[in-house]
Design goal:
The chain contains six helices and 16 strands. An eight-stranded antiparallel barrel has the order 1-2-3-4-5-6-7-8. A six-stranded antiparallel sheet has the order 11-16-12-13-14-15, sandwiched between helices. With 342 residues, it is of the alpha+beta class. The protein has two domains: 167 residues, Porin (Beta Barrel), CATH 2.40.160; 165 residues, Alpha-Beta Complex (endopeptidase fold (from Nostoc punctiforme)). The chain starts with a helix and ends with a strand.
């Protein structure tokens, strides 16, 4: 290995680490994979990769990782180490998804850069609450001239790559994606409470225009329709929701696109005073588990000081009414309000 190559590996690692720090911590997962690439009928290269992945918008996710291609057994002997950027469409932890990637590495023998391109599909299965196993099949193309897959050299190799991967939540980086558990007692705030007023009437009474009241009422009714759905870390559909997934789903069903991450959702719309009397149905409420301004949980106000959210026990109603222990617990962690529709 030349001096140039030895320096390139930590450079790529530092670059990818910097890119990874730009990802929101919520829902960030570490993933590792091992695979085989068949660039020709008589040669096989091993592919090792490790990195981080993050939901971006809806079913679209991104990933950054380190990649090592052990190609010592082939005639080309183009062993390299570098970095890769990937885009995924679909839930990697639940069924089929499509994946495409591009990266650049430095060859161990000469230190020269080689680009590579991949596209394919995979299947993932969640075994535990945070661990996912999966398999992928990709078509991999090497790009020794770093000219793009549309302008390859005739000597550039290409072939099928198959790999297995495991991923799990990074400890300490996913607190925003985990539910605030709520107090151990009393029982959920929905028990024994009278029904909340109709969201349309409540929105109009709070000063919303007719158009805004109709839209937010529909959003609230959509969220209420999935009451009781299980908590699912990373979930965005009726099979299960996490807190921000529920908000994104409820608004998305009515054409309003919100970010996937709770702290990004709390930057949308306009700020509203943190007073119960200022709230309208459809307002997004932000909570902080540690009492700071850092958003770790969100809920959707439905009227009368109540909000629907996905907690550790699933989608349920809770209250901001400061009269009982459950309500005080949530009220004490309530840190912000955003109005998505004026």
């Amino acid at each position: 290995m030349t001096i140039r190559t030895a320096r390139s590996v930590p450079f790529v690692a530092v670059l990818l680490a910097g890119l990874a720090t730009t990802l929101p911590a919520q829902h960030t997962r570490f993933e590792a994979a091992y695979g085989l690439w068949f660039p020709s009928a008589d040669s096989t290269a091993q592919v090792f990769s490790a990195g981080v992945a993050q939901p971006l918008l809806g079913f679209l996710g991104v990933g950054f990782g380190l990649v090592h291609v052990a190609d010592d057994q082939s005639a080309a002997a183009r062993t390299l180490t570098g970095g890769e950027f990937t885009l995924r469409l679909g839930r990697q932890d639940r069924g089929l998804y499509v994946i495409a990637g591009s990266g650049i590495g430095f060859r161990h023998d000469t230190g020269n850069p080689d680009a590579f391109w991949t596209v394919g599909a995979g299947f993932g299965l969640r075994l535990f609450s945070t661990v996912v196993l999966g398999i992928e099949g990709r078509y991999r193309v090497e790009d020794t001239g770093v000219a793009g897959f549309w302008s390859l050299d005739p000597a550039d190799r290409q072939g099928v790559q198959v790999q297995a991967h495991v991923s799990f939540r990074i400890p300490g980086m996913g607190s925003g994606g985990q539910p605030i558990p709520g107090p151990s007692t009393p029982p959920p705030a929905t028990e024994g409470l009278p029904p909340a007023p109709e969201p349309y009437d409540a929105a109009r009474a709070a000063g919303a225009s007719e158009e805004a009241a109709r839209l937010t009422a529909s959003v609230v009714e959509t969220a209420l329709a999935v009451m009781g759905a299980p908590y699912d870390w990373g979930g965005t559909d009726q099979n299960g929701f996490d807190c921000s997934g529920l908000i994104q789903y409820a608004y998305g069903q009515h054409g309003v696109v919100l970010p996937r991450i709770s702290r990004d959702q709390m930057r949308m719309g306009t700020a509203v005073d943190r007073q119960a009397e200022a709230l309208r149905p459809g307002d997004v409420l932000g909570f902080s588990a540690d009492g700071s301004s850092r958003i770790t949980h969100v809920g959707l106000h439905v009227g009368d000081g109540r909000f629907i959210h996905s907690s550790s026990t699933g989608v349920k109603l809770s209250s901001l009414d400061d009269e009982d222990p459950d309500s005080r617990w949530w009220h004490d962690r309530w840190v912000g309000v955003r109005r998505i529709v004026e």
